[in-house]
Amino acid sequence: MIIGVPKEIKNHEYRVAIAPSGVRTLGNSGHRVVIQRSAGDGSGITDAEYIAAGAEIKQTASEIYRESDLILKVKEPQPEEYPFLRDGQVLFTYLHLAPAPELTRKLLELRIVGLAYETVQTEVGSLPLLIPSSEIAGKLSVQIGAHYLEKQNGGSGVLLGGVPGVQPANLTILGAGTVGANAARIALGMGANVSLIDISLDRLRYLSDIFKDRLTLLASNVENVEKAVPRADVVIGSVLAPGARTKKIVTRRMISEMRKGSVIVDVAIDQGGCFETSVPTSFDDPVFVVEGVIHYCVANIPSCVSRTATFALTNATFPYVLKLANMGLNEALDQDSALRRGVNVYKGKLTNKAVAEAVGINFTPYEKALA
Q1: Going by C-beta distance under 8 Å and a sequence separation of 6 or more, which residues neighbour residue 37?
Q2: What pLDDT sits at residue 247?
Q3: pLDDT, tens digit, for every residue of 247-285?
Q4: Which of 299, 319, 341 represents a domain boundary (last residue)?
Q5: How far apart are CA 105 and CA 85, in angstroms?
Q6: Which of 26, 229, 243, 298 could form a disulfide with 119 if both were Cys (CB 3.0 to 4.6 A apart)?
Q7: What element of type H or E holds 346?
């Protein structure tokens, strides 16, 4: 199989979809890997390292797409890349289609086989290809909140951990999954007063054991959210329903009751965001202010620690890449139910129910699409 890795072109996306070790393993298995020139530069991986591992370096993205059976990316195709995609090509990347109807329609029109990292899901509900980025985004979200609380950055001038004699900041986390748990760990380490809200009581009990009652754990309901958000200096949104568009948990009214200069970090913005006032931003212009509250809604947060994020992601994705290469698409999907759940679009059919409901396009189960 020919595996292609183009350079990412999304705003300030510095990650790359394969590591040199992956190139070497694929080559040893009889596959050919083509990588666009300087694709790894943003993660500190040189073309020379890829060449030494057995990759071929191509000058342009069009060459990569034209020659490859399987395209590996980190982020969803950008409009400039649409002309390069071709009928039946397999695309393996973060797709986040629920808030992106235009991209969804384009992939359907082009009859792409789109496997989304974020919906590869095991029998027990784990999301193995989302976990690495979620761990990183959770940890970074607290750093980001602390940064924008600083007065010179427009914040209220509150130190996250406080000092003796002065209360620490109140930090509320919506969602106790991988993002939320990692955010809580960092926030507690910095000395903040942390509240974590989630719909799953079992998850809250588990985290109570992990954190030894060092934080406030609340069941997710309107009353608890209404009380926790206005008193928070930082609110981190980490609500997730695999593949689906995120529900708006926090209303504009709640935000209007927060202290001016407080900060919202919406990590769920990839799937549409969980604050009524959220709209996607980029690293070039990461924040905006609504009701006096700073909103940070960058959709690819892990890219700012690109080297760590690249190796964390490729550690998780590569076993699936190797399976696709060695078995071929249909056999790999037949043998691996987690990978099969990753299929969002299949040759003109939309095969993820949550995405279909979000974008208003008919859903076709994968088995029927294959038939």
Answers
A1: 7, 47, 57, 58, 59
A2: 92
A3: 999 999 999 999 999 999 999 999 999 999 999 999 999
A4: 299
A5: 13
A6: 243
A7: strand 343-346
Range of 27's domain?
A: 2-120+306-370
CA distances (Å), 163 to each of 184, 237, 260, in order?
19, 26, 21
What band does 241 get if pLDDT is binned at 50, 70 and 90? confident
Calpha distance 15→304 (Å, rounded): 9
CA distance 115 to 11: 22
Shared domain for 241 and 175, answered yes or no, is yes
Residues ≥6 apart with Cβ < 8 Å to 337: 123
Active-site annotation, residues: 96, 270
- Which residue, 278, 299, 320, sits at the end of a domain? 299
Domain identity same for 175 and 95: no
Question: pLDDT tens, 70-83?
Answer: 999 999 999 999 99
Q: Nearest 5°: phi and psi at 239? A: -75, 140
Examine the domain organization and report whether 36 and 146 are in the same domain.
no
Which tokens hold the place of 40? 């790894």
Residue 336 DSSP SS3 = coil
What CATH number should be reported for the domain holding residue 171?
3.40.50.720
Place of tokens 């191509």: 58
Domains identified in the chain, total number: 2
236 closest CA partner among 282, 158, 291, 178: 178
Nearest to 205 by CA among 194, 214, 217: 217
- Mean pLDDT, the chain, integer: 97
d(CA 19, CA 334): 27
Q: How many residues does the chain have?
A: 371
Q: In what order do the strands lie in the sheet with 56-58?
A: 56-58, 32-36, 2-5, 70-72, 90-93, 113-116, 343-346, 349-350
Report the alpha-carbon distance of residue 93 to residue 314 in Å, rounded.
11
* Cα angle 41-42-47, degrees, rounded to a multiple of 5: 15
351 Cα distance to chain centroid? 20
